Amino acid sequence: MCPVDDASNGVDGHAHTNGHTNGTTNGANAAPETNGFVAVETKQNPHIQTSNPYQPVGDFLSNISRFKIIESTLREGEQFANAYFSTEVKIQIAKALDDFGVDYIELTSPCASEQSRLDCEAICKLGLKAKILTHVRCTMEDARVAVETGVDGVDVVIGTSSYLREHSHGKDMTYIKNAAIEVIKFVKSKGLEIRFSSEDSFRSDLVDLLTLYSAVDKVGVHRVGIADTVGCATPRQVYDLVRTLRGVVSCDIETHFHNDTGCAIANAYVALEAGATHIDTSVIGIGERNGITPLGGLMARMIVADREYVTKKYNLKKLKEIEDLVADNVEINIPFNNYITGFSAFTHKAGIHAKAILNNPSTYEIINPADFGMTRYVHFASRLTGWNAIKSRVEQLGLEMTDAQIKVCTTKIKAMADVRPIAIDDADSIIRTFHGNLHRKEDVPLLPGMTEEEKKLFEMKQAELSGEREKRSLDEAADAQAEVPSGKKTKTGVAA
Ligand SMILES: CC(=O)SCCNC(=O)CCNC(=O)[C@H](O)C(C)(C)COP(=O)(O)OP(=O)(O)OC[C@H]1O[C@@H](n2cnc3c(N)ncnc32)[C@H](O)[C@@H]1OP(=O)(O)O
Ligand SMILES: O=C(O)CCC(=O)C(=O)O
Ligand SMILES: [Zn+2]
């Protein structure tokens, strides 16, 4: 057996019955002895860096290689339906995000409640490397409370779309501009960073927006924010708006994308291409409704764009730990298809994929799981498996078989998997028994717990699937291996 290593190549039966659950079996530290996963070597080093043909060349607007993260799990994330963060949990999350290397941590408004204000003060006192921000309405009352908490900066927001102007705060654009300027000047006078953002930017009038942003830029705001509050924006709309804004203001540009229509990561990416400097994220994307750009999803997107920047700046191996921490606290499961950490994010199943992955993981992977401390798996307990995957498993089990024998053994696994879902143990049992019978001349036992009906079906499938192919393989095996006993047909059709 090869040791489990950081290159993280696992072979895994991955069937429903093997006790797989999120978070444990797909983790980098899963113990191979207890769950049946064993590392294998791929034939080539995974993910040899080659130049990216889609890399923009000389794009002076793009901040793909110098973006910053404003992590808002403790603000937007607290707006998620299930979220309740105690002070201790907030501190744990803030420390974990700091370890991960996010640039900013945004906290709930201290005006939301007395405990929110106390928690904000407590987190400011932790002395984290990340800058601490709090997020308030565009009023002097809120701003006065915010600056007293000890934060490094204040994120101010007010809705600019007609929906919000009419139905939320009821203020017109002139009022908004004057209120913004007053708040910005005040926060700056306290020596703090100040960001001004328009809520619902993509349903706001473009001239209104640019006029407002230009005015706040002139009074020295550090960042302006664009928010797709309802998740309506398309990547093209984002590119156009950010690029236009880039030509109007000289300050930094932060962007905030909701995921109602599934564009939150793509929109963050194009925003950076168009000149945005900061992206808002939350862990697993939690937030109002179905949330915002997820931290892990953004990392997945960005590591493909600029691996060096992302791997040097962020402690990517902490991602899973942070996601588990947040998921536990808000009582959700990490979705199976979650970026990077979803339980099948690096599991390759179909035989064609498995073969190529075992030769070189770059064939079917754009992200190296090892960068995130995750494990790659090759699924071999299914009817879609192929002999290359089984060969890899045979080697893991320390068994010796010729290719021809492995091909026959593969037909047995596929036949069984045609009858019912099978688990690693089932596939292993077929492999071991097949191997044993090469020398012991015994029948292959049917799997424990099979019903009479399943036995009959299995035998039928076995006969159909094996047929000519098995006969051919057995002949080859007999030719190639003098020590293989002459092929005797048993009731399961296995050579013994
Ligand atoms: C898109 C976003 O996610 S923005 C961030 C959302 N965050 C929060 O809402 C933080 C949690 N919120 C709270 O705890 C409360 O809503 C508070 C403390 C902010 C305000 O509570 P209340 O005074 O009871 O008002 P309520 O929540 O019912 O309504 C919001 C009020 O803020 C006003 N308002 C809304 N947005 C803004 C804004 N950006 N700037 C100024 N005022 C605003 C509304 O007009 C309304 O004022 P009203 O009292 O005159 O009706
Ligand atoms: O402050 C911001 O930029 C964004 C506020 C927000 O959460 C939103 O508009 O969805
Ligand atoms: Zn939001």
Blueprint of the fold:
Elements: E1 9-12, H1 32-35, E2 38-39, E3 68-71, H2 87-100, E4 104-107, H3 114-124, E5 131-137, H4 140-147, E6 153-159, H5 162-167, H6 173-189, E7 193-199, H7 206-218, E8 223-228, H8 235-246, E9 252-257, H9 264-273, E10 278-281, H10 295-305, H11 307-313, H12 319-330, E11 347-348, H13 351-359, E12 376-379, H14 387-396, H15 403-419, H16 424-440, H17 452-480
Parallel strand pairs: 1-12, 3-4, 3-10, 4-5, 5-6, 6-7, 7-8, 8-9, 9-10, 11-12
Antiparallel strand pairs: 1-2
Helix pairs in contact: 2-3, 2-12, 4-6, 6-7, 8-9, 9-10, 10-11, 13-14, 14-15, 15-16, 15-17
Bound molecules: acetyl coenzyme *A, 2-oxoglutaric acid and zinc ion.
State the end-to-end distance: 26 Å
CATH class of the domain at 66-305: Alpha Beta
Bound compounds, each kind once, are:
acetyl coenzyme *A, 2-oxoglutaric acid, zinc ion
Helix content range of the residues, please?
A: 40-55%
Please, what is the oligomeric state? Answer: single chain
Structural class: alpha/beta
- Low-confidence segments, ≥5 residues, pLDDT <50? 1-9, 12-39, 478-496
Main β-sheet description: 8 strands, parallel, barrel
**Shape verdict:** elongated
Looking at CATH, the homologous superfamily of the domain at 66-305 is Aldolase class I
